[in-house]
Amino acid sequence: MMGFMLTIIRRDLLLIARQPAELINPLVFFVLVVALFPLGVSPEASILSQTAAGVIWVAAMLATLLSLELLFKLDHEDGSLEQLLLAPYPSWSLVLAKVLVHWLVSGLPLVLLSPMIASMLFLPSQALPSLMLSLLVGTPTLSLLGAIGAALVTGVRGGGMLLTLLILPLYVPVIIFGAASVAAGAQGLPIDGYMALLGAMLVFALMITPWAASAALKL
Question: Which residue spans within 94-201 are E strands per DSSP?
Answer without folding.
Answer: none
